[in-house]
Write a structure and sequence with these properties.
The chain is built from 25 helices and 21 strands. By secondary structure, it is α+β, with helices and mostly antiparallel strands. The chain is globular, with a radius of gyration of 26 Å. The chain starts with 14 loop residues before the first helix and ends with a helix.
């Protein structure tokens, strides 16, 4: 029997690409070589974009890409290019726009047919091996596109050129420049309320996504209505199947409106953002259940997503043993077998495990039967069921380390360290930040701090190493902005000036190398690979807009009493003015932008703490401020405070906003009052 041979993807850094290395498809990675081959053969490119935790990506790989006859058809008529959307978010974003323009919807796997110069002319998402779900069979699509290319090549090229030009124009929309005010945020809250599901929480119907940025924005608003929407949603999610009631952490989204049946993949970016939001909701309400969910989410990241080198993996798959959700779902017999008859019946009732189930006869665990108490890690039911579940085959993990996603985790752990006082959280944030600074960044000949986008942990699960194999892909705007944002938060938590200096250096480079005409920043460096249209990150999707985060970073740095930082505030002001009208009209698409506008309007609060850091009085002031940490706050201590011109022999705290400082406060109790008054 002939042994299968590998294709070009075998030596790629992306785990998702390597999953396709043994397909009979003659895959190319995204490369100049692929486009040169298409031009030489004068044939279209078949672009397939997905990611390793994507269930339907696996389905299409098994049904079509592993099938020799389908692969032969692909190889004969097309140059086939496979892209990991997480490794190339620019390629993903641009061609997803094309898919949405041509089909009115999007998703993964994404299937796009391109001319040899990269212009899209036909697109879709998942295609089945035979006609079903109202979709044509993939083979029929391949044959039809190949025939159209052979007979109407010039017409297709003209159509593709027109589509590309339309997309390029839409990348720089003409939007009125306005100065936002409190009505901007009020109108946004009113619009969100129109989409709010008052029964189950969340926005809209099925499928329902967590929307952490929207929830964060609502928590920042000083109205009971806004806060109720956020808290109700967070509580419903915590009790639903979208939250892993045993192992902690959130699945990607719910397939229903009740938060019951999830799509089972777990993403680093979701869990990092949700941990922060639950922490902030706990501080806002005093509800310890919200703190519990935040801590269990952070514990999930530490226990199951941490790689040996210290970074965080990108995701965990939805599938195991060839079935979606098998690792997470239960039958009544399995629960009783694990816990015994009496306790098993109680646990099945408590977690909503029934004979009919929710997914292929299996049940998704959730807080059922009118229960209000969330499961705790020390709960007997939870402890035993976790032990039994650990004997199952766990879903595969994508060990790719992405700078921007790791940065969101750094920010979450740093904030948790301040709000809970847990030094273990701070240690995790430090170790991850140091990994990114040491392995993923370098200074170029001009002294600019540059960022690699992704790396692969080269250690094993049983052997912790510090070496990382870096992807050749340079950093994107989201990497620079999110990492700078995380370093500012980490500086507030740790007080180490190197983190603040690195954040400023990243912001300097960011404004220089990503700037384009029109005020906003593009996603790729000006000297990097340019696609057929600029990729400008405006909307907030599952990952925050790089521009929105850049605004928050620049507002924070611009608020510091450093003359060289004045440019940061100036750029942030222009960016906010350019987006305010869109943000107000379409708040569901601009969650992080809403937070950025909120920060712009209220101003950054800088807390400067002077005095000898070894003195108990100084340390107590620092503790009070960190326990009161808010996302609109930057804490300056030590040499950074001295360099800003704040020098005092006695420990004192200065609360400053918009260039004006309140009188110094020496008493910790008084400082708590001042911080509450200025929130």
């Amino acid at each position: 029997m002939n042994q299968p041979s590998s294709n070009r993807l075998l030596h790629e850094t992306s785990p998702y690409l390597r999953q396709h290395a043994w397909n009979p498809v003659d895959w190319y990675p995204w490369s100049a070589e692929a486009f040169a081959e298409a031009r030489g053969r004068n044939c279209p490119i078949l672009l397939s974009v997905g990611y390793s935790a994507c269930h339907w990506c696996h389905v299409m790989e098994q049904e079509s890409f592993s099938d020799p006859s389908t692969a032969a058809l692909m190889n004969r008529h097309f140059v086939c290019v496979k892209v990991d959307r997480e490794e190339r978010p620019d390629v993903d974003a641009l061609y997803m726009t094309a898919v949405q323009v041509m089909t009115g919807r999007g998703g993964w796997p994404m299937t796009v047919f391109l001319t040899p110069d990269g212009h899209p002319f036909y697109a879709g998402t998942y295609f089945p091996p035979e006609d079903r779900y109202g979709l044509p069979a993939f083979v029929r699509v391949l044959e039809a596109v190949a025939e159209a290319w052979a007979r109407r090549r010039h017409d297709i090229a003209a159509q593709a050129q027109a589509i590309a030009e339309d997309i390029a124009r839409s990348a720089r929309p003409s939007v009125p420049t306005v100065e936002p005010d409190v009505n901007t945020l009020r109108h946004a809250v009113e619009e969100l309320a129109r989409h709010y599901d008052g029964k189950h929480g969340g926005f809209g119907g099925a499928p329902k996504f967590p929307q952490p940025m929207i929830l964060d924005f609502l928590l920042r608003q000083d109205t009971d209505a806004a806060r109720r929407m956020a808290v109700k949603t967070l509580g419903s999610m915590a009790r639903g199947g979208v939250f892993d009631q045993l192992g902690g952490g959130f699945h990607r989204y719910a397939t229903d409106a009740e938060w019951l049946v999830p799509h089972f993949e777990k993403m680093l970016y979701d869990n990092a953002q949700l941990a922060s939001v639950y922490l902030r909701a706990w501080i806002a309400t005093g509800d310890d259940d919200l703190r519990l969910v935040a801590e269990r989410t952070l514990a999930y990241l530490q226990q199951d997503m941490r790689t040996p080198c210290g970074g965080f993996a990108s995701s965990e798959d939805a599938d195991s043993e060839g079935a979606e959700g098998l690792f997470y779902t239960w039958t009544p017999d399995e629960v009783i077998e694990a816990l015994g008859s009496e306790s098993g019946v109680q646990a099945a009732r408590r977690f909503g495990v029934t004979e009919t189930g929710h997914v292929d006869g299996r049940s998704v665990l959730h807080v059922a039967d009118g229960g209000t108490r969330l499961p705790r890690p020390d709960d007997v039911h939870v402890h035993v069921m976790i032990q039994r579940r650990s004997q199952r085959r766990r879903p595969e993990r994508d060990s790719k380390i992405l700078v921007g996603w790791n940065a969101m985790a750094i920010a979450a752990f740093a904030e948790a360290a301040m709000l809970t006082g847990d030094d273990e959280y701070l240690q995790t944030a430090r170790e991850t930040a140091n990994l990114l600074l040491e392995r993923f960044t370098y200074r170029d000949a001009d002294g600019k701090l540059r960022v690699y986008h992704a790396g692969m942990d080269s250690g094993t699960e049983s052997e912790a190493r510090t070496s990382v194999t870096l992807s050749p892909v340079p950093g994107f705007l989201e990497d620079y902005a999110l990492f700078a944002d995380a370093l500012i938060t980490l500086y507030s938590a740790a007080g180490e000036p190197a983190y603040l200096s690195a954040a400023a250096a990243l912001a300097d480079t960011m404004l220089e190398v990503f700037r384009i005409d029109g005020g906003l920043l593009q996603e790729v460096p000006a000297d990097g690979e340019q696609l057929f249209a600029p990729v400008v990150s405006m909307e907030d999707n599952a990952i925050p807009s790089g521009n929105a985060v850049a605004v928050e970073v620049c507002l924070a740095l611009g608020a510091l009493p450093v003359r060289a930082h004045e440019k940061f505030g100036a750029w942030a002001t222009r960016a906010v003015h350019s987006m305010a009208a869109l943000v107000e009209r379409h708040p569901l698409a601009f969650g992080r932008w809403l937070c950025a506008v909120d920060l712009y309007l209220r101003g950054v609060t800088t807390i400067v703490i002077t005095g000898d850091a070894t003195q108990a009085a100084h340390q107590e002031l620092v503790r009070c401020v960190r326990c009161s940490y808010r996302p609109d706050m930057v804490i300056l201590t030590g040499t950074a405070a001295a360099e800003a011109g704040y020098v005092s022999e006695r420990p004192a705290a200065y609360v400053c906003r918009r260039g004006t400082c309140l009188p110094p406060v020496m008493d910790p109790d008084e400082l708590v009052v001042v911080l509450r008054r200025t929130a």
